[in-house]
Amino acid sequence: MWFFDAIASGFRSPTDPGRVQLVRILYGTAMFIRSALAIGQGGWALFAPGSLSLHHAEQRYGPTRSRLLASAYQPMLIARTAAAATLAAGLAPRLSLLAVLAGAAMNLLYLKSPSAVRLSLLIGGCLLVAGNLGHGLHLEHQPSNANTWAQTLLVITTTDLYWNSAYQKLRSAQFRTGLYLAQWMHTYTQLKDRLPYRRQHAIPDVVLRHTGNLTPRDIRLWRLIAITVIAAEIALPPTLLIPQTAPYAAAAGLAMHAAFTCLRPRHLITFSGLTLSTYIAFAV
């Protein structure tokens, strides 16, 4: 298996550099979508005078530094959007990647739950150590060790993401029993028509009708789903590494992330896109 060969050889064994180059294209695309959504769904005026975000920034950083953050926000939003597009297109990829990472790091200053930002920084950091990010949309398939270290890091990052997520879910009795998911779905059915933006959720009506209550049957169903999710997160990384099981694992991962994204499309489309893009790195 290439992953263990890479570790045993000190990351000098050859791999297909096109794998990491394709991750670069998908990563740039996901980051561009994230920035475009931020611009189009209220993010452009995030630090407008009198906004709650500006008020929180003033409380956290003081008036002077919060004004600096507010004045730099829109230029950085434009810069990171353009950099993500050039990264996906393969134009000055390393410089574009640095600009994307700088823009993502700035998000940590004001987002309350920046899990997707941390993931984007980790994946971007993996790409940054690649020796051959490629140019344009062309993928090179001549085996070399230029991207072996980066590809190995991408696999480790994704494995840690899934296994840490499964560990946290296992520790949560509320999640294991299905109560958390049942409560979330029930609350959503009561509040979905009061959301400020359209299409913040994409849960089919048939799912809401049959799982949107807090009956014992609903909780048992969500318990089964919770156990399935935990098992899938544990099994996905090793099965993605095995050529014979990789197509089935990728299909299962795609289905799982599609379901996650239906719960919160506006927030999870980037997270799911980033995670699914790393599946490419598992193949030899």
Q: How would you portray this structure in words?
A:
The protein is mainly α. Helices cover 71% and strands 0% of the residues. The protein is built from 13 helices and no strands. It has helices at residues 2-8, 17-40, 52-61, 63-89, 93-107, 115-128, 148-171, 173-176, 179-191, 205-211, 216-241, 246-263, 265-277. Helix 6 packs parallel to helix 13 and helix 7 (148-171) packs antiparallel against helix 11. The protein is flat and about 55 Å long. The mean pLDDT is 90.
Q: What is the alpha-carbon Rg in Å?
A: 21 Å
Bulk shape: flat
Structure class: mainly alpha
The overall pLDDT, averaged over residues, is 90
Distance between the termini: 8 Å
Largest beta-sheet details: none
Number of helices: 13
> Which residues sit in consecutive blocks of at least 5 with pLDDT less than 50?
none
- Secondary-structure element order, as H and E? HHHHHHHHHHHHH
How large is the share of residues in beta strands? under 5%
Helicity, as a percent range: over 70%
